[in-house]
Design a protein that fits this description.
The complex is a heterotrimer of chains A (267), B (341) and C (285). Chain A is mainly α and 267 residues long. In chain A, 76% of the residues lie in helices and 0% in strands. Chain A has one domain: Orthogonal Bundle (MetI-like fold). Chain B is built from 13 helices and 11 strands. Chain B is globular and about 70 Å long. The chains are: A mainly alpha (267), B alpha/beta (341), C mainly alpha (285). The interface between A and C is large, with 87 and 87 residues.
Chain lengths: 267, 341, 285
C-alpha cells in the first residue's frame, strides 16, 4: 500500500494531535504510581500506596456515595423531563415554544458557576442548602440540554407513521407513546441517561457552590484535596476515574453506537 | 405505574432531607491536610477520655466561614478550629456559643495572648515569616529585615498568600514607621514590591508546591508549613526579621446551636492540656499556649517558637482580633485590586 | 382525540424546570444591586455601587482576559480539531474510527478537576513537559508554563477539542462527497478540493463549533483557578474570589451578571457574523 507524502504528513499530524489529547491521561496514570510525595518523571520506582490512600480516604468515600445518589436522581429526572421537552417540541406547536426552548437550552451558555451561585442564593431562601435536593435540581437544569438533544435525535429516527398506525388501531396518544415511541427511542434514551449521569458525576463549577461539606460530590472533594495536600493521591483517584470512564465509553460505543448518539452519521 | 410514582416521590422526599447526621460523633470543622492530623491528636485523647468518636469536616478558613454562615440554622459542626481573627468574624455573626471558662481547667496557665475573648480560645500559635531556599538563592543570602524582600536578588522569585495579605501589609507599614491601622502609609513601598512577586498562593498546598518545586524560592510562608517542608528534606531557612513576625493563632470555638455542648467544651479543655499541647506542638512545630507545656530544647530553638513572655513581646506582632478582622476585608480588597493585577 | 391532557402533562414539568432556572438567575440579578455589608452575608438596600466597581483595573482586565482567552482557545481548537474530525469521518478503517472516537471523546467525560490536575503535572517547572524537554537537551532552563495565560490556553484547548471534534464530525459527515468528486474530476488538486469545497460546505459546523467553544471557555473555572493560580483571572475566578474569599456576595453576583451579559452578547455578535459568512459560502443550487 503506497502512501504519498501528503498522506504521511496528514497521519503524522493526526498522531501528534492524538498525543496532545491523550497526554494528560498518561501523565496522571504515571504519577499515580510514584513512590514518594515529590513527583519525578519518570517515577523513581513503583508503588500503589496512593491508590490505597485514595480508596480509603473517608472524604472521597462519602463524596463518591453522594455523587452516585445525586447522579442517579438527576439523570433519571433529566431523562423524564428531557423526554417530555423533546416530545413537546417535536409534536406540538404553541405560543411561546421558542421561548421555552431557549430558556431550557440557556444552561449551555450560562456559565456553570453562575447557575451554581444562583442556586446557592435560591437555596438559602428556601433553606435547602444542606440537602441533596438543591444539588439534584441544579444538576438537572445543567444536564437537561444534553439529554434533550440526544432524545431529540433519536426521536427523529422514529417513523411517525408507526404512531399513526397505532392511533388508527385505537390507541390513545399516551398509550401509543408508551408502547410504540418509547421502545423505539430506547437506545437514544439509554445514551441520554448515561450522558446525564456522567455529566452529573463529573460536574464541578456549579457543585462547588451548591454542595455543603457533608453533601460534597467527588470533584469538589478532589478540589479541596488539591488545595490541602500535595501528594499524588489525586493522581491515583484520577487514574481510576479515567480508566472507568474509558471502559464505559467503549462499552457504550459497542452497544449503543456513540456515533448515533452524537449524531455523526454519514449519509 | 401508580406504585412506581409513589415510591419515587417517597424516595425523593427522603432525599430532600439532609444526609444522616452522626448522632454519636463530635464534628470538628478544621483545615485540611496536616492540620486535620494535628486536630486528630486532640481527637484521639478526647475519644480516649469520653468514648465519643470525632468526625472532621475540612476546608479553607474563609470557605468554612462562608459555608457556616449559609448553614446558620443547621450547623454542620459542633466545634470549629480556625484562625483567631476569623473566629472573631464567626462570633460577630452570632455563630459561636459563649465559652464556659469555668470548665476550662487550664485557663489560668495560658499565655495572655491565648485569651481571645468570650467565644474562642487560642490553642497554639505560628508565624508568617519570609522563608527561602538555601540552594536556590545566592550564597550568604539572609533575611534580617522585611526590607530584604525588596532586594534585587528577590526580584521575580517571591510568592505570598492571596487570601491574606495582612503580613506584608503590616510589614510595609512598620517599615514606613507607621502602625497597621495607618497602613496606607505603606502603600508606596508595597507597590514597589510588585516586580518581585512571581505568584500568589491560594492554599497551604499551593504554598508548599511553589516552594518545593522551586517556582518561588522566597516565600512569605506559614511557619508550620515551612517546618513540614524542611522535615521532608527541602533545604530552607526561616528567619524572624528584626521587625518581628506576624503571629497567627489557632483557636477553638463552639458552633452556636450545637447539640453536644458539654462534649464540645470538653474537647477544648483537652486541647489546652499540657501533655496534649506538647504533642500538638511537637507535631506541627508550633508554639503552645499553655505555659506549663514541656517544650523540647530543639523545638524551643526554632524561630517562631515562643516560650517566654519576652519572646512574645519582641518577636511577635500580634494584633487584636477585632482590629484584624475589621482591617482584613479592606486590606484584601486593596490588595486584590492593586497588587494582584 | 384527546391530545389536551398529554400536552399539558408534557408542558407542565417543562415550565416548572424553566421557572426554577429563571428564579436562580433572578436571585443573582437581585443580589447584584444590593449593598455589601463587610464581614456579613446580609445585604443592604439598592445600590449601583457594585456595577461601578467593574471598571477597576483588575476586574476590567478579568473581563477582557476572559474574552481574549476564549477567542484564542476557540481559534486553536478549531484548527487542531478539524484534522481529527476529518480523519474520524472519512477513514474506512473501523478500528481507527473507534480509536479516534474513544481517544477524542473520552476526555470530555472525565471532568474538569481530573483534566486540570493532569495539566498541572505537565506544565510545572518540574513537570513532565519540562523534564522531557530538558532531558532531550532542547532547553536548558525550565519553561514557565504554570501561572501564565499560555499554560491556561494549552489546557483549555485540549478540553475544548472533544466538543469541537463532535460538532465538526457531524458537519463533515453530512457533506455530499459527490461535490468533492466532481471538483476532482474537473482537475482540482486534493488541497484545492479541501479548501474550496469541503471546508465551505462544513462552514455551518465550523461556526457552530466556534460559537459553542467560545461560550464554553468563557465559563471555565477550575483551569484558570488552579493553573492560573491567582495571576490569570477570568470572570469565574473573580466571582469565586469575591464571593467565597471576601464574602462579598453582591459583587460576586454583579460579576456573574457581567459573565451572563458577556456570554449572550458574544453569542449574538458571533451569530450575526456567522450569518454573513454562511451566506457567502453556501452552495447556490
Amino acid at each position: 500500500m503506497k502512501m504519498d507524502w501528503r498522506a504521511l504528513l496528514f497521519w503524522t499530524l493526526i498522531s501528534a494531535l492524538l498525543v496532545y489529547m491523550t497526554l494528560p491521561a498518561f501523565v496522571v496514570i504515571m504519577a499515580s504510581f510514584n513512590p514518594g510525595e515529590v513527583l519525578s518523571f519518570p517515577p523513581k520506582g513503583f508503588s500503589v500506596r496512593w491508590y490505597i490512600k485514595a480508596v480509603t480516604y473517608p472524604d472521597f468515600q462519602i463524596a463518591f456515595r453522594n455523587g452516585i445518589i445525586v447522579a442517579a436522581f438527576a439523570s433519571t429526572l433529566a431523562l423524564v423531563l428531557g423526554a417530555a421537552v423533546a416530545l413537546l417540541v417535536a409534536r406540538y406547536k404553541f405560543q411561546g415554544r421558542g421561548l421555552l426552548e431557549a430558556i431550557l437550552s440557556a444552561p449551555l451558555i450560562v456559565p456553570h458557576f453562575t447557575t451554581g451561585f444562583g442556586f446557592l442564593l435560591l437555596g438559602a431562601h428556601l433553606d435547602i442548602n444542606q440537602t441533596y435536593l438543591i444539588i439534584i435540581i441544579a444538576h438537572v437544569v445543567l444536564v437537561l440540554p444534553f439529554v434533550t438533544r440526544a432524545i431529540h435525535v433519536s426521536l427523529q429516527n422514529v417513523d411517525p407513521n408507526l404512531e399513526r398506525a397505532a392511533a388508527n388501531l385505537g390507541a390513545s396518544p399516551l398509550k401509543s407513546l408508551l408502547r410504540v415511541t418509547v421502545p423505539l427511542m430506547l437506545p437514544g434514551l439509554a445514551g441520554g441517561w448515561l450522558m446525564a449521569a456522567i455529566l452529573s458525576l463529573t460536574e464541578f463549577s456549579a457543585s462547588l457552590y451548591v454542595t455543603a461539606s457533608r453533601t460534597q460530590t467527588l470533584p469538589v472533594a478532589m478540589y479541596n484535596y488539591i488545595r490541602e495536600y500535595t501528594d499524588p493521591t489525586i493522581a491515583a483517584i484520577s487514574a481510576l476515574l479515567i480508566v472507568a470512564t474509558t471502559l464505559i465509553m467503549i462499552v457504550a460505543n459497542h452497544f449503543l453506537g456513540l456515533r448515533k448518539i452524537l449524531a455523526i452519521e454519514p449519509r | 405505574m401508580k406504585k412506581l410514582w409513589i415510591a419515587l416521590t417517597a424516595a425523593f422526599a427522603a432525599f430532600s432531607a439532609s444526609p444522616a447526621t452522626s448522632q454519636e460523633k463530635l464534628v470538628v470543622s478544621v483545615w485540611g491536610g496536616n492540620w486535620k492530623d494535628g486536630a486528630a491528636i486532640i481527637g484521639k485523647e478526647f475519644t480516649k477520655r469520653t468514648g465519643m468518636e470525632v468526625e472532621y469536616i475540612t476546608g479553607g478558613t474563609l470557605d468554612r466561614l462562608t459555608k457556616a454562615k449559609v448553614a446558620r440554622n443547621n450547623p454542620e459542626s459542633d466545634v470549629t478550629y480556625t484562625t483567631s481573627h476569623v473566629g472573631y468574624l464567626y462570633q460577630n455573626d452570632g455563630l459561636f456559643e459563649k465559652l464556659d471558662k469555668s470548665k476550662l481547667t487550664n485557663f489560668n496557665d495560658l499565655y495572655s495572648s491565648a485569651d481571645r475573648g468570650d467565644y474562642e480560645v487560642g490553642v497554639y500559635s505560628y508565624i508568617y515569616s519570609p522563608v527561602f531556599r538555601t540552594d536556590l538563592m545566592p550564597k550568604g543570602f539572609r533575611i534580617g529585615s522585611w526590607s530584604d524582600l525588596w532586594s534585587p536578588e528577590v526580584k521575580g522569585r517571591l510568592s505570598m498568600p492571596d487570601f491574606d495579605p495582612s503580613h506584608i501589609i503590616i510589614a510595609a507599614s512598620k517599615l514606613s514607621s507607621s502602625t497597621p491601622e495607618d497602613w496606607k502609609n505603606g502603600i508606596p513601598l508595597l507597590l514597589k514590591l510588585k516586580p518581585s512577586i512571581k505568584a500568589f498562593y491560594q492554599s497551604d498546598a499551593t504554598s508548599q508546591d511553589l516552594f518545593k518545586n522551586g517556582e518561588t524560592p522566597v516565600e512569605v510562608m506559614l511557619s508550620i508549613n515551612a517546618y513540614h517542608l524542611i522535615g521532608q528534606g527541602v533545604p530552607a531557612t526561616i528567619e524572624i526579621p528584626k521587625e518581628g513576625a506576624v503571629v497567627g493563632i489557632g483557636a477553638l470555638g463552639i458552633n452556636k446551636g450545637t447539640k453536644k455542648l458539654d462534649a464540645a467544651q470538653q474537647f477544648i479543655d483537652i486541647a489546652l492540656d499540657p501533655v496534649v499541647q506538647q504533642q500538638i506542638c511537637d507535631f506541627h512545630k508550633c508554639s503552645p499556649m499553655n505555659k506549663k507545656t514541656t517544650v523540647s530544647p530543639e523545638l524551643a530553638k526554632l524561630p517562631g517558637i515562643f516560650t517566654t513572655e519576652e519572646q512574645w513581646k519582641t518577636q511577635a506582632i500580634v494584633l487584636p482580633d477585632s482590629t484584624y478582622s475589621k482591617l482584613l476585608p479592606i486590606w484584601k480588597a486593596w490588595f486584590t485590586e492593586e497588587m494582584m493585577h | 382525540m384527546q391530545t389536551r391532557p398529554l400536552f399539558f402533562a408534557l408542558l407542565l414539568p417543562s415550565i416548572v424546570i424553566a421557572a426554577v432556572f429563571l428564579f436562580a438567575l433572578a436571585e443573582i440579578l437581585q443580589y447584584s444591586f444590593r449593598e455589601f455589608i463587610p464581614g456579613s452575608l446580609d445585604v443592604g438596600g439598592f445600590t449601583w455601587a457594585n456595577f461601578a466597581r467593574i471598571n477597576r483595573p483588575i476586574y476590567f482586565y478579568a473581563i477582557v482576559d476572559t474574552f481574549w482567552i476564549a477567542l484564542l482557545t476557540s481559534l486553536f481548537t478549531l484548527v487542531m480539531s478539524y484534522p481529527l474530525a476529518y480523519a474520524l469521518v472519512r477513514t474506512e478503517r473501523n478500528w481507527l474510527r473507534t480509536l479516534l472516537i474513544i481517544a477524542a471523546i473520552t476526555p470530555l467525560f472525565t471532568g474538569e478537576i481530573v483534566r486540570t490536575y493532569a495539566w498541572m503535572l505537565l506544565l510545572g517547572t518540574e513537570g513532565m513537559i519540562n523534564t522531557l524537554l530538558k532531558s532531550l537537551g532542547i532547553i536548558d532552563t525550565s519553561l514557565t508554563l504554570m501561572y501564565t495565560r499560555l499554560g491556561v490556553v494549552i489546557a483549555l484547548v485540549q478540553f475544548a477539542m472533544p466538543v469541537m471534534i463532535i460538532l465538526l464530525a457531524t458537519a463533515i459527515s453530512h457533506v455530499n462527497t459527490d461535490y468533492e468528486k466532481a471538483a476532482a474530476n474537473l482537475g482540482a488538486s486534493p488541497g484545492r478540493v479541501f479548501w474550496r469545497v469541503t471546508v465551505p460546505l462544513t462552514m455551518p459546523g465550523i461556526i457552530a463549533g466556534f460559537i459553542v467553544i467560545c461560550a464554553w471557555t468563557m465559563s471555565a473555572f477550575a483551569t484558570p483557578q488552579l493553573i492560573g493560580g491567582g495571576k490569570i483571572l477570568m470572570i469565574s475566578n473573580v466571582v469565586y474570589l469575591t464571593g467565597f474569599s471576601a464574602l462579598n456576595f453582591p459583587f460576586a453576583a454583579t460579576m456573574s451578571v457581567v459573565a451572563l451579559v458577556s456570554a449572550f452578547g458574544a453569542l449574538a455578535v458571533m451569530k450575526a457574523i456567522s450569518t454573513r459568512i454562511e451566506r457567502g459560502t453556501a452552495l447556490h443550487s
